[in-house]
Amino acid sequence: MSELGGIARLFLRLGATAFGGPAVHIAMLEDEVVRRRAWLSREEFLDLLAATNLIPGPNSTEMAIHVGYRRAGWPGFLVAGACFILPAALIVCALAAAYVRFGRLPAAEGLLWGVRPVIVVIVAQALWVLGRSALRSRPLVVLAGAALALAAAGVHELMLLLGAGLAAALLAGTIRPRAAAMLLPLPLVAAPSATLPGLFLIFLKIGSVLFGSGYVLLAFLRAELVVRLGWLSEAQLLDAVAAGQITPGPLSTTATFVGFLLRGVPGAAVATAGIFLPAFVFVALSGPLVPRLRRSAAAGAFLDGVQVASLALMAVVTWQLAASGVRDLPAALVAVAAAVLLLRFRVNASWLILGGAGLGILRALLS
Asked: 29: domain range?
């Protein structure tokens, strides 16, 4: 029971403070479960990250579920995932209620101004630490460089991960890996109106086929909810995605916002359940296989390749975050202060993010 309590406290805190998207969440998770608590070795963490990148769904939520399973079995599996999702879902639901009443989102630019430089530092630090463990040989370094160039050029994330895994297995001289099975989209859901079952099925489908960043989620939502079904306007969709971006926890809680707009609290509940349920299913199916894969020479080499490609994708996200989040001298000073506090004094990343949010709000009030 004490194990489950520790898992619940950790993931409730991360779910309430982890701003910035999957790369930031994974960086904060690495800091908590590898560096501070030693629940996993860095190599085990990288294996789970590689496996997570190969399945659909919100990566940071799936990593939380993996960690819970490794720490406390199936009860930890459920507690970690639920506690990571719940704070964000409740916050987004409250924002949606305010949006329905007032017709707009509360102003959030000031908060984001202070948070963005901090999350750039957190992700860069995690990238450095994980990279030192993953880049164990010259071929892997070369493969990482190639993956970085392809990721920056916009190659699809899944193709990049699978290609890097196959290339690493071939370079290691192991047996040729079998071709990866292609994930087929679920059939279109016939839902002429925004009923609760229709909402659940739409978001279940999206959660089952979603790879990539929040921008990919935006594309899925627009295609389904604006173009095909006409349930939302373009402006409502952008406001829903903004709500996911300005709140902590997984960006997929955008579904919570949409569900509330369409069917109130019940809609928020079924949309949230629909988009996150596949993450639990995919982790349940893949999680127990990760240690076995590492014991196989061919599969282990494949995982090595996926690891370095995952870090390449993370590096591209870090650059994008820096370009959008550190655009003036005050923001750069916030980033430098965060780096000193994180690297020299090992201040917890959650406190750094809260501090950045406070500075951003203070700056907005004074301007």
From this structure: 2-180+285-366
